[in-house]
Amino acid sequence: MILITKFNHAIKTIIYSLFLFSILFAQPLRQVRPEAVGMSSDRLDRLTQQMESYVLENQLSGGVTLVLRHGKIAYFDAFGYRDTESKDNMEIDDIFRIASQTKAMISVGIMILQEKGQLLISDPVGKYIPKYNSTTVAVKTEDGYKVVPANRQITIRDLLTHTAGVGWGFGPGGDQWKKADIIGWYFAHRKTSIQSTVNQISSLPMDAQPGERFVYGLSTDILGALIEVVSGQPLDKFLQKEIFNPLEMTDTHFYLPVNKHHRLSTVYSSTENGIALSPNPGKRIGAGMIGQGHYINGPRKSFSGGAGLLSTAEDYATFLQMMLNGGTFNKQRILSRKSVELMTVDHLGSIESPWTNGVGFGLGFSIVKDLGKRGTLGSEGEFGWGGAYHSTYWVDPKEDLVVVYFTQLIPANNIDDQQKLRSLIYQAIID
Q: What range defines the domain where residue 226 resides?
């Protein structure tokens, strides 16, 4: 009897040890041979060669490409250099400025609050940020513009779909935005909170009436401020608690911790003679920041929900796999399946997307409505977006596919890498 008891105890100890080992060392995203998930290793080699050619031709410094199929890593490759001057090779865990790819996470944050019963996306923004109870719109006239009251209040859904009329300060009333020093998408240099900036935005004339047309701008920055108000937490803490920690996204930050500075990829700019190092920290040109930015040595005060995050390809792919899974990943539920469904269908209706035929917009993502009108490989129902530093991503539910492509190039001129990326990934599907 004693021997049996000792034997059972030993078995339990072994099982418990294996359980602890699985917790400590399990990789939520597991790499497999491409053939195991219906892709060709030989055909994916074409993608590797193509990406390396952009480095050889001095069109890109380097980057990271990650492809998930059926929830497994089919392709994960770093090419080129993190920094070309030092010939520091790019690594798959290097960190990138993801700019507007931040928007998807903020949109998920809003849906989390709706699921907690703390807001409805049909609510007017002014219910939570009173300065938005009354907004104005700049309307063009023969001799300039006039400012008129908004026809109705801006709703949270308007912000999620970019139909709130909120631009980047280049609309008819742009002189007032310029005077307020709110131009473009970049906020990392600001010494004031996002709440302060968003309150300023409320007093400026918008580019269009709410619900009238798609206007890409600072809508998601307003959503970030709204998350802070409703949750009672700073935006970085909210995202950490609700998304990053459950998904083990350990390398996603607004500002980089000291021990990760060496992993931040350098920013380059396209020129007539190939790429050139962007200035440090940089300067605003048009709507954007051309340069390295203030992600290491900046004031660390403004959490931009529209364009502020840094991340790795694996972190971001984990987030997207959660969306593809219907709101859950690695036994952690972030959203309900029905919230994900609502986010990933078109909400624009008759409002036209300004960029691509056959594409609409959901709650934080572009949505492919008509594959033939878009005219590029993919599937109807595919959702995605990109970032100002020339990063991009998409999720193809029909093919059970997630693609993340990170590089650091702004502006990105006369380069077809994103188009070739799409072509070379889909040609590698063999099932």
A: 107-237
